[in-house]
Amino acid sequence: MNLTPTPPLKPSHWMAATRLLEDATSPLQGSHEADVVIVGGGFVGLWTAITLKELEPDVRVTVLEQHVCGGGASGRNGGFVMSWWPKVGTLRGFCNDTQTRFLGEQAEAAINELGAFCERHGIDAHFHQGGWLWTATTSQHVESWNATLQACERLGVQPFERLDAKEVARRTGSAVHLAGVFERSNATVQPALLVEGMRRVALGQGIRIHEHTPVTAIEPGHPACVRSAHGSVSARNVVLAVNAWGAALPALAKLIVPVNSSIVATQAMPDRLERLGWTGGESITDSQLMVDYYRTTRDGRIAFGKGTGAISFGSKINEVFSADGASLSLTEADLRRTYPMLGDVKVEASWSGPIDRTYDSLPVFGRLNGHANIHYGIGWSGNGVGPSRLGGRILASLALGRKDAWSQCPLVERNCRSFPPEPFRYLGGSLVRNAVLRKERSELAGRTPSPFDRYLASFAPAGLEDKA
Q1: What is the pLDDT of residue 9?
Q2: d(Cα 306, Cα 450) in Å, to the nearest integer?
Q3: CA 14, CA 68: separation in Å to the nearest integer?
Q4: What tens digit of pLDDT does each residue of 63-91 get?
Q5: 3-state secondary structure of 6
Q6: Of the four, 86, 139, 195, 374, which is 20 to 30 A from 224 by CA?
Q7: Quick one: pLDDT at residue 2?
Q8: 331 contacts: CB under 8 Å, gap ≥ 6
Q9: All residues at 6 or more sequence positions from 117 whose CB lies less than 8 Å from its CB, including other chains
Q10: What pLDDT is attached to residue 26?
Q11: What is residue 18's predicted lDDT score, i.e. its pLDDT?
Q12: 165: number of CA atoms within 13 Å, CB side?
């Protein structure tokens, strides 16, 4: 099995504020042995490594990262620490009620655990538990959350609080929000600082991390062998935590499609935010399929993101996922539409990143090509900051051969709707994406989308609104 090394993504504004690029561990040199080798040094890979050490302190763990830890999606996302309650309807599509409630409650608990982890290890990742607002910015999206709230009620949980137009506008500082619901448990972090802190903790536990080490081949066997340009690691178990880069492997490419998400960050303006009334630190997401997501930062900026859905032929991780001009223009346009009173405020940073989208926007775990000692966890779909803690538990249990609630949870070896091969993936995906863009532009303008665009948009993967 070959993994094609890709050029490193350009650092995001988040990463530029950390020491990630200055304090890299040495690349892998020579032949080594480990009990578990993890490919990927983002949230999932580091949580897996840390969990392995928590479960079995003597286990030998090596992490191989092609760039720097957090250089992919983990260090460049919006920093939303969310639960899985918005996806409860999708979960119920392949889980029974007990399993659904377990995963929902564990994903919510992971938010508090993350805050406690940062406090325990002295990680100043700007963790702030200000809650999350799921809003409608066009009349067609009002009450789009009803099915989710009803599914939660059937499980006996009520994580959401309904808000009227006046209250949601007051909390967000923008009158474009017509209604919304509030989930109190959610938090925000500065993601690159979190990755850096996790990396420090992992090194302190005796975990070996080799950055700037693209993996070139994985040779199945007992042990398996993971190779890079200048070294190799033989291990009893291999864990693939490679996010969108998993599309380089045919067995995983059918499960995910890498899509662009872009973020623009304004200049610091704490006084303006105070006047707007957006002072609670709430994170905000609208109900578009090409979702807008935004939050404030500790120094008084708005970090405004958009899942633009741009893709590349062959799912190659290229400049589309680093600094895509068209996607960034769409993102800034939505920032200006949402906060027109901030037209004079400058955008000081912008970047893009890859999201590994599954069709239902929930992750899938399994054994690569049937090899019992090569495990993967992919498909975080832009919502991995909090749930990656659960992913680490699942992958650690799989790698250690444990039979527990994590290794046997319904996310493992589940049947997922697959994406078509090329060229149908790119051509069809581009056709659907353009239809979604036209449909949502019409809705935001108060017009009825064309039946043709509505039909094509129905083939898009799920967003926040469940599409089980």
Answers
A1: 82
A2: 23
A3: 14
A4: 999 999 999 999 999 999 999 999 999 99
A5: coil
A6: 195
A7: 65
A8: 262, 263, 264, 304, 305, 306, 308, 350
A9: 123
A10: 92
A11: 63
A12: 9
Tabulate helix, strand, coil % of the chain (nearest 5).
Answer: 35, 20, 45
Q: Which of 198, 174, 243, 256 is nearest to 53 (CA)?
A: 198
In the chain, what's the furthest Cα-to-Cα distance? Answer: 63
Q: Where are the alpha helices (DSSP H) in 382-423?
A: 388-400
Ranges in the chain, pLDDT < 50: 20-23, 467-468
Distance of CA 451 to the CA centre of its chain: 32
- pLDDT of res. 22: 44
Distance CA 91, CA 364 (A): 12
Q: Which residues, in sequence order, are CB contacts of 305 under 8 Å at separation 6+?
A: 77, 78, 261, 262, 263, 264, 292, 293, 294, 331
Give 217's contacts (C-beta < 8 A, 6+ positions apart).
1, 2, 3, 226, 227
Helix 43-55 and helix 191-204, axial crossing angle in degrees, nearest 10: 30
**Geometric angle at alpha carbon 177, from 173 and 179, rounded to 5°:** 120
DSSP letter assigned to residue 278: -
Is there a contact between 282 and 133 (Cβ–Cβ < 8 Å)? yes
Residue 40 φ then ψ, to 5°: 120, 125
Q: Is 360 exposed, middle or buried (0-12, 13-18, 19+ CB in 10 A)?
A: buried
How high is the pLDDT of residue 268?
Answer: 98
Q: Residue 164: how many CB atoms within 10 A of its CB?
A: 11
Query: What backbone phi and psi angles, to 5 degrees, belong to 186?
Result: -70, 160
Which residues, in sequence order, are CB contacts of 42 under 8 Å at separation 6+? 69, 70, 71, 72, 73, 74, 75, 195, 241, 243, 388
Q: Dump strand ranges (E) for 155-223.
A: 160-163, 179-183, 187-188, 208-210, 215-219
Stated as kind and residue range, the H or E segment containing 226 is strand 224-228
pLDDT of residue 467: 45
Residue count of the chain, please give it.
468
Residue 193, CB half-sphere, CA atoms under 13 Å: how many? 18
Residue with tokens 């564990």: 106
Q: Identify whether the C-beta of residue 35 lies closer than 8 Å to the C-beta of residue 217.
A: no
- Domain locations along the chain: 128-187+257-357, 424-457
Q: If we measure between CA atoms, which residue out of 284, 394, 278 comes closest to residue 341?
A: 278
Helical H segments across 320-359, by residue range: 325-338
Domain 128-187+257-357 class, CATH top level:
alpha beta
Write out the H or E segment, with its range, that includes residue 438.
helix 424-444
Q: Is 56 exposed, middle or buried (0-12, 13-18, 19+ CB in 10 A)?
A: middle
Which pair of tokens denotes residue 452?
């043709």
Give the pLDDT confidence score for residue 367 in this predicted structure: 98
Please tell me the predicted confidence (pLDDT) of residue 466: 52
- Summarize pLDDT for 293-315 with one digit per residue, the tens: 999 999 999 999 999 999 999 99
Which pair of tokens denotes residue 156? 């006996």
Give the model's pLDDT for residue 25: 80
Task: Kindly report the number of other CB atoms within 10 A of residue 447's CB atom.
Answer: 11
